[in-house]
Amino acid sequence: MYHPGAHALNRPDQPAVIIAGTDQQISHKELNERSNRIAQFLHGQGFRAGDHIAILMENNLRYFEVFWAALRSGLIFTPINRYFTPDEAAYVVNDSGAKALFTSAHMGETAKALVNSIPDCPFRLIVDGSCPGYDELDAALATFPKTPLTNEPRGQMMLYSSGTTGRPKGILRTPIPADIAEGLSHIDRLRDYGIDECTVYLSPAPIYHAAPLAYSVGVLSLGGTIVMMPRFDAEHALQCIQEYKVTHSQWVPTMFIRMLKLPLDIRGAFDLSSHQVAIHAAAPCPVEVKRQIIDWWGPVLHEYYAGSESNGSTRIDSHEWLKRPGSVGKASMGVLHICDEDGNEVPPRAEGTIYFEQPEMPFRYHNDPKKTREAQNSQHPNWSTLGDVGYVDEDGYLYLTDRKSFMIISGGVNIYPQAIEDALVLHPNVMDAAVVGVPNEEFGEEVKAVVQLEPGVSESVDLAEELIAFTRDKVASYMVPRSLDFTETLPRLPTGKLYKHKLREKYWPPKPA
User: Fold this and answer.
1) CATH no. for 407-505
2) N vs C: which end of the chain shows fewer Cβ within 10 Å?
3) pTM for the predicted model, two decimal places
């Protein structure tokens, strides 16, 4: 039985969630009782199966209380990116049709600015403080019991895409089991990683994102313990592995890069012997970065490729990857197809759009049937894509190239920025890098690199030339940036994804109205 009630009986005092570096934690028993109380409150306000709620909160213990309350009430739960502007957050609340919004005092300014923009969301609740326009959650719950609802229809998440290519899209998956006592769809995959009631799982990323939330909920479903970092810090992450005897963890490539840039004496100061499995995804990982992490941590890395749409996935462990550097593995859910622009399959090693085949279309974009149709193969409506480009080898291993929408077309040649970005971040003075296409009268577009330097490194013309030269040894000549700009910070999400459209807007004239 994969829900808090089962673990409240079997291991009531075991920590369910710990906030790293603080004395904050919640046991399985407390999580069960508090989520029951919120479920009772929502039911008392007239919420029924299929209704929507949303949450805008930092990495907070209360997040999981709200999540489980929704899941054991049949509600549709939408996490909102905590870094969104008030306008972006209001868009998600309104588009999802949420009738309740849960937030925290930490989100005070954004929460306050939201109130007048979400008129159709009558229930607004806040934890850890107060804010005009919101009721304090604990006061609202005071008269409600901590026992479960008589009937516990299973709810589900409606995640929103990260918005890296435009407005976020709500993703509604094929309905999952009707009863809370039935299993989560990915439980078997979690067990393959050795996750069980003894697991201590480190979550260094924002919990609103699909992967950290799904894996955290999976660990809780199996009775394990989550150690959630308030925010990622390279040295603190290593300290957490030692202090909490972390067995499992999840990362994005930018975290690997920042840990590798720590001084060697700091990298070697922590005991990582408890660490059995390090899962990573969300963005392509530069080959040399991953190789260095395996050299440091041992063959504990497990990579997967998937999206919030859950239309398919691939997996690869360290041993397989060392034989096929750069691959994200073979299909572990769905049947993999690489197709050309007309929807026809292409032979091994030919690049094309990545599709996964399922018995039926596994998701739809909320309020956007056009986007849903665009995700389907023109010849096979049960094949769907996330818009990524790649190829498979003769043994069925997938290699990612980039997102189709990020492709630069220069003089009729297709250039994918990821390989150039991977090269730039290997330079010791570079903290982060992005590559976009900018206008060029002769070729249509040319390659522009935008670089965020390491703290203490100064911008200069000489350094820009050095960085461009640095890429010449690592990518084809036609991919070498024609120019390079420096920026104080790149619009990158903590999940590793870049808001490329925001970066491009700086270099392209506005589209006519």
Assistant:
1) 3.30.300.30
2) C
3) 0.86
Instruction: Identify the residue whose tokens are 């920590």.
Output: 15
Say whether domain 28-180 belongs to CATH 3.40.50.980.
Answer: yes
Rounded-to-integer distance, Cα 129 and Cα 122, Å: 19
- DSSP string computed for 32-61: HHHHHHHHHHHHHTT--TT-EEEEE-SS-T
Eight-class DSSP state of 345 = B
DSSP state of 195: -
**What is the C-alpha separation between 118 and 124, in angstroms, rounded?**
10
The answer to whether the beta carbons of residues 277 and 250 sit under 8 Å apart is no
pLDDT in tens, 436-482: 999 988 888 899 999 999 999 999 999 999 999 999 989 888 899 99
Query: Pick from 179, 195, 181: which is nearest to 302 by CA?
Result: 195
- The domain ranges of the chain are 28-180, 407-505
The tens digit of pLDDT for each residue in 34-49 reads: 999 999 999 999 999 9
Answer for the pair 351, 391: CB distance below 8 angstroms, yes or no.
yes
Beta bridge partners of 485: 450
| Rounded Cα–Cα distance for residues 340 and 389 (Å) | 10
